């Protein structure tokens, strides 16, 4: 039976055409072995034990919930463009590039918390940096960003600030599929 990293590579595909390519990871969620093995693998990227996991909507929330359940801690969903948060003193939020805002309920992350952020893919790091800023404002301890794929090419400063750790790099996925597969 293939190991987790092999299963992640096999279940990954670049889709689209020459002008626009996008990462398709939907096969990961269909593989029960990936669902079973991914949470402990992401949690193992950090030695420190978090008291809470933050997961940005939507796939970060899915992965965050799996990692939080594995660790026996709670999950805080980081919402995107939440209209309620815009007008609520009970939420903390940040605007990020591309007309997006992120927020979560302030009371769900406490100053004594050790926070692990979990996501599927980190590209620019803008969302994770905004989440880290919110965690810092609350006074909680940022442990780092655990993600499946690191695509922070040439952004070592962002990787260091986030303490971003990943199971795979995007560069390593480029050659996974050398010829297009027929859709089906």
UniProtKB/TrEMBL annotation:
Single GO molecular function: glycosyltransferase activity
Q: What is this protein called?
A: Phosphoribosyltransferase family protein
Q: Which organism is it from?
A: Dactylosporangium salmoneum
Organismal lineage = Bacteria, Bacillati, Actinomycetota, Actinomycetes, Micromonosporales
What Gene3D superfamilies does its record include? Answer: 3.40.50.2020
Q: Which InterPro entries match?
A: PRTase-like, PRTase_dom, Pur/Pyrimidine_PRTase
Location of the Phosphoribosyltransferase domain? 48-159
Source domain of life is Bacteria
Keyword list, A-Z: Glycosyltransferase, Transferase
Q: Entry's CDD domains?
A: PRTases_typeI (cd06223)
The keyword Protein biosynthesis appears for this protein: no
